[in-house]
Amino acid sequence: MTSATNSLKELHQVLLQLEDCRSQLERGPSQIKARENIVRKREAEQVEFLDRLKHLRMSADSKSLELKTVEKKIEDLKGKLNSASSNREFDIFKAQIKADEMAMSVLEDEILEAFDQTETESNRKSEFEENVKSAKQQLADFKSKFDSDSIKNNEIIARLEEELKVLEKDLPKEPAEQYRRLVNSRGAKSMAAVLNGACGNCYVNLTPQQRIQIKSGPVQFCSNCGSILYIDENPEAD
């Protein structure tokens, strides 16, 4: 492998590392936002649950109050039944008592069902609390890791940018101008290793003559995608 090929490979590796570090920094805010959205979703689910639980309790309390009203009404009717002045009046009070007792039985069943539902839902309260807590913890952990990684990535970027400047100085003037235009528009995709006789970006096969020129001649560009090419004779050692 020639010195020029070595330099191009090193240059490409630096560009790839820079792109990866910058990508991590750029993705961070959107990843944080996604986790913040999860926290808001879990909080909304908790609010909805607590509201549902509140209405279940209110419904149970309302039915309990209604039951007391019916019980009082039956008690009053029994008093009137004992003091009825005629058989007709007695029968009317008796029929009302029977109807209210049936209504009271239905209410008692509804109250038991309401209390069962309330108890079942109440047992899920810790589940929603844990969901919110977990989402907040994941957000905090990611923010902490991202802040720590950002410091490291910025340090790596600064070092790589210095390495890049040194490597770019070795490029011949004319290819250097084309290289800069490509890097500005395509980043690390502006370069490609030749693997198995093909361009590593577009996978178009090169002729044997082209491979010889890449190894021994000036900087070569892929005739199909325009990438700067270099021979990577030992890709597994990267």
TrEMBL record:
UniProt keyword NAD, yes or no: no
Keywords, comma-separated and alphabetical: Coiled coil
Protein's UniProt keywords contain Coiled coil: yes
Taxonomy, superkingdom: Bacteria
All residue ranges annotated as the C4-type zinc ribbon domain in the record: 198-229
Coiled coil (residue ranges): 60-87, 118-170
Pfam families: Zn_ribbon_9 (PF02591)
Record-given protein name: Putative zinc ribbon domain protein
Classification lineage: Bacteria, Pseudomonadati, Planctomycetota, Planctomycetia, Planctomycetales
